[in-house]
Amino acid sequence: MSATDLLRYAGSPKYSTFSMDDASSADIQFGQVEETPLTRSHWVKDLFVPKETGDMKVLWAKRTLAAIGAVAFLSAACEIWIIVNEATIKNHLLGSVTENGANDIWFNFKVELTYHSVFLASIGFWVFVLWNAIMHQNFIQIIAINFYNFGLFIYSILQIVQTANDLNNVRGQVKDPNVASNSGYFLAAQILLPSIIGLFIPIYCYLTFQLHREFGWRMYRITGGEKVVTRAFTSYHILLLLLKFSAFSGTAFIILTLVLTSITEKGRIVIPLVGALVGIATLVAGYYGARFEIKGLMAFSIIGSLTIFGYTISRFVDAFRRGGREFERAKIPFLMFGVLSELMWLLTIVFSVVCWRNFGKAGLKDVLDQESRRAKGKYQPPPTVIE
In degrees rounded to 5, what are phi and psi of residue 24? Predict the structure, then answer.
């Protein structure tokens, strides 16, 4: 057996589980995996909590999950408090509104509450994508979350400015301007939210460094340092990352399209229904096509991604053509999520092609299949010949 093979088969997990991210969740070992019966409580724990396997430590992985759990809880609490206060202010404003001012207030808070709802959903996605990265030891995804943290921080600051502008816009429509007050706990929650996220940014940078010490060398151990396999493995993980972010950004864009732009009643039914079917089919085909090197599925995924990419552009053109008061008010977030969605789907198409070109050349499928057999306790190591 060569030195490369020894590197690939190094390690000795007691037991392992296999999941969507394949090599991300299983460890390499020399010899057959020892199957250990799992109780129901152990199975649930292994499903949601990272476990130490062989020489792969998870101390900082658990600390990172604890940190994101605490930060996400505080952030979600602030955002929910903001939403509740805005709903309360809206009701108070409607009770003291001047004649013909009710429509302005309903419109104003419809847009604002949509922003907050999308931000609250982004916090949930934040937790999921980090948990997913840690459970599957996908260090590329762990690094990418640093940029996501910064995006949430900017969004939370813009939220303060937008809320202040919204209240100023409706203050002249009410009999008692003090009702549209942006102060007290309401303002405190708006300020506390970016403060929490801003404090977490350097902390997560440090956690990223520590996670690199736990997971960083794992790719080399799997690929044996072979450049072709390493590039294919990296491209595969980047594609998985892009599929997740494309799904989230695309969903946010569709929500903003339905709520904040001019659209027919038929469109409000057809767009989410067709969008969900095409999106899910594209994501599933992209994963299984890349994982098992099935060209037909990869072709379907690329065509689906191109379709979604083209639809996003068409929505841009149509929204600007129709214009309208609601679109003018929603133009900035509409453009932000639209551009982000286009960028994610464009990169998804690029890396789908890259992964396709690696089919049958890099040996990635063999490595992942071997990981699957090892995780199921069905792997038999090749005989070692000593000369």
Answer: -70, -20
CB distance 157 to 95 below 8 Å: no
The pLDDT tens digits for 324-365 are 666 666 677 778 788 888 999 999 999 999 999 988 877 777
Closest CA to 245 of 140, 102, 96: 140
Separation CA 44–CA 382 (nearest Å): 33
Q: What is the pLDDT of residues 117-140, one digit of tens each?
A: 889 999 999 999 999 988 888 888
Q: In a 10 Å sphere around its CB, with 0-12 CB exposed, 13-18 middle and 19+ buried, how is residue 127 labelled?
A: middle
SS3 242: helix
- What sign for the dihedral angle of Cα 371, 282, 148, 68? negative
Query: What's the pTM value of the predicted model, to 2 decimals?
Result: 0.78
Name the nearest CA neighbour of 242 among 350, 316, 334.
Answer: 350
AA letter at 293: E
CA angle, 109 as apex, 333 and 332 as ends, to 5°?
15
Q: Which residue has the tokens 């801003």?
A: 198
Asked whether 229 and 223 are in contact (CB, 8 A), the reply is: yes
Give the span between the Cα atoms of 60 and 62, in whole angstroms: 5
- Three-state SS at 51: coil
